[in-house]
Design goal:
The chain is mainly alpha-helical. The protein contains 6 helices and 3 strands, in the order H-H-H-E-E-E-H-H-H. Strand 2 and strand 3 (71-74) form a beta hairpin. The protein binds zinc ion (ZN). The site of zinc ion has 4 residues, from helix 4 and helix 5.
Length: 151
């Protein structure tokens, strides 16, 4: 099964994701920050699908193998509008998953990537906006160099 089919399989056809989340996703996709980031990471604009997995302990998921046209799943039910700052939370989730896609383009399988490292760099990017980009890219490439299975 292709990664894209897998993503669509877990997506329930009649499922209506939270409007607060889908409108944030649209806002992030249209925003200059994401465009800048995708360009810098040499990635296409991601395709984002809201899903409702049977059980979940994550807010987002990058579908491994899709780095040509990254597919990102968002578990919208995990975003509680009462608790989280929706805009920041949705954006940082998408950025986190894009870093997974980038590391994959560098030859590191999703399973071999370090969650804490990815989350930390996503936070740096989101907090620093465009400013932090070069520094974070250097850190990502350094990590790849140190963790490249082919090296
Ligand atoms: Zn992750």
């Amino acid at each position: 099964m292709t990664p894209l089919n897998e993503a669509i399989c877990i997506y329930e056809r009649n499922y209506r994701p939270r409007k607060e989340v889908t409108s944030e996703i649209q806002r992030v996709l249209r925003g200059g920050f994401l465009k800048h980031l995708c360009k810098g990471l040499h990635l296409c604009k991601p395709r984002i699908v809201c899903i409702k997995p049977p059980e979940s302990n994550c807010v987002g998921l990058y579908i491994g193998g899709t780095n040509d046209h990254p597919v990102i799943c968002i578990v919208d039910s995990e975003f509680d509008p009462e608790v989280v700052e929706m805009d920041r939370a949705v954006e940082s989730t998408i950025v986190h998953e894009l870093i997974h896609a980038y590391l994959e383009t560098c030859g590191i399988d999703s399973e071999d990537q370090d969650e804490e490292f990815v989350e930390d760099k996503a936070r740096m990017l989101c907090d620093g906006r465009g400013e932090a980009f070069k520094g974070v890219l250097t850190l990502l490439d350094k990590w790849v160099e140190e963790n490249d299975p082919e090296a």
